Amino acid sequence: MSGSQSTLNVAHQALDFDRIRADFPLLSRSVHGKPLIYFDSANTSQKPAAVIEAVDHFYRQTNANVARAVHTLGDEATTAYEASRDKLARFINAPSRDEVIFTSGTTQAINLVAYSYALPRLNPGDAILVTQMEHHANIVPWQLICERSGATLKVAPITESGELIVERFFELLTPEVKLAAVTHVSNVLGTVNPIAVLARECHRRGIPLLVDGSQAAPHLRVDVRALGCDFYALTGHKLFGPTGTGLLWARREHLNAMPPFFGGGEMIREVRFEGTVFADPPHKFEAGTPNIAGFVGLGAALDYIELIGLDNIAARELELRVHLTEAMRSVPGLRIIGEAREKVPVNSFLIDGVHAHDLATLLDHEGVAVRSGHHCAHPLMQFYGVAATLRASLAFYNTHEEIDAFIAAIGRVRKLLA
Ligand code: PLP
Which residues are annotated as catalytic? Predict the structure, then answer.
């Protein structure tokens, strides 16, 4: 074991991950009579009891609309909801809580930037730069605004092992590029992209950088100041929080310059039929009644993560990833897709002669939940020349025993398919 790895192990020795796992009620259920092995956290994570209880408590004790009522419940609801904005700002090290826009998730956050920031700035001949490994949420919004504006989409290539070819990315940052949009971590390959390096080069050329942080936030310390990006999007349900929650962080100068995307209640200072004066960010971008209980739950998720510690999570996941990868490599005919040097515990794979969906279905009967399909990344599937892969995606609540059971289950179902 390398020196740095053993230091990491010492850092989380004090934590009992079996006890931590017990904080996630769903993980103790069975599926088809077998103990559940949940290896689909990149799709959505499971929720600790603290999050479930926070949502339950909100509806039992606090439920009221935010920012409207002067009564006690309205005040308590607003305080709980806005406390989550402070927690999210701290979580990503945002310079100001006012730069944290609540959204329904990453998809809404990227669309907000596409329509409010990028579209008004795009002219025919301009371009948006993405990479080959993007999720559809970081491709389709750009295509839609390219169609409207006459701009085009440029794509930075990756290597066979699933790493961005950084020099090619730099070469593609030509003057017609008006925005670059890159995932922090690939949902298919698990690759961690060198965002700070990309941001530096983008800024040297005056090009803003949007980062899709959906798959990074559950695994890595996110520090938007250190990353140096312009926009950062993440989704709460992959971060141990409720569905329908997420954020867009953007530099204040961008938010000030962006017109609202949705109009309605909550986002105004004054409305007259002659015209409306909008509220300042973040509220300017938050029309209508939000997912109040969801954000209260997300705040509880962030408290929970803080309690465990991001360094402890990283150390635990490094151990799990090394074990998972070694065990998968020992399976004859199994090909891991995505072998980048910097990865999170997400391994896509294929097995010779076995259809991904068939294997996933049979694994489900063994209690193993893995995702099979294109993972909302058609262009990446096309790059690898496959229609689908299987994907085992882990979180800190998974165990070494589950990895061994997963490998044993693959052996059993393979015999059935032979
Ligand atoms: N980007 C990446 C890399 C993802 O993995 C996902 C979800 O799988 C998304 C964006 C979209 O997230 P949401 O559906 O929560 O908006």
Answer: 376
Q: What does the pLDDT look like over 364-403, one tens digit per residue?
A: 999 999 999 999 999 999 999 999 999 999 999 999 999 9
**CATH for 395:** 3.90.1150.10
Examine the domain organization and report whether 164 and 278 are in the same domain.
yes
CATH number of residue 294's parent domain: 3.40.640.10
pLDDT tens track for 179-238: 999 999 999 999 999 999 999 999 999 999 999 999 999 999 999 999 999 999 999 999
Helix (H, G, I), strand (E, B) or coil at 233: strand
List the residue whose alpha carbon is closest to atom 10 of ligand 1: 137
- Residues 89 and 158 occupy one common structural domain: yes
Percent of the chain residues past pLDDT 70, beyond the cut: 97
The answer on 341 and 257 residing in a single domain is no
- 168 CB-near residues (< 8 Å, 6+ apart): 156, 157
Max CA distance (Å), the chain: 72
> What pLDDT is recorded for position 364?
98
pLDDT (0 to 100) of residue 70: 87
Mean pLDDT of 337-365: 96
149: Cβ contacts below 8 Å, ≥ 6 apart: 119, 122, 123, 124, 126
Ligand 1: which atom is nearest the Cα of residue 212?
A: 1
User: Could you tell me if residue 248 is inside a domain?
Assistant: yes
Q: 168 C-alpha to center of ligand 1: Å?
A: 25
Domain residues for the domain of 401 are: 309-417
pLDDT of residue 14: 65
Q: By the 8 A CB rule, do 251 and 232 touch? A: no
What is the Å distance from ligand 1's center to 140 Cα?
A: 12
Asked if 292 and 319 sit in the same domain, the reply is: no
More confident residue, 345 or 2: 345
Helix (H, G, I), strand (E, B) or coil at 182: strand
Q: Are 249 and 101 in contact (CB under 8 A)?
A: yes
Whether the pLDDT of residue 267 is over 80: the answer is: yes
At which of 287, 305, 323 does a domain end? 305
Which of 270, 305, 340 lies at the terminal end of a domain, its last residue?
Answer: 305
Same domain, 232 and 347: no
> What is the reported pTM?
0.95
**Domain contains 36:** no
- Calculate how far, in angstroms, residue 183's C-alpha sits from the geometric centre of ligand 1: 10
Do 295 and 333 lie in one domain? The reply is: no
> CA-to-CA distance for 272 and 263, rounded, in angstroms?
14
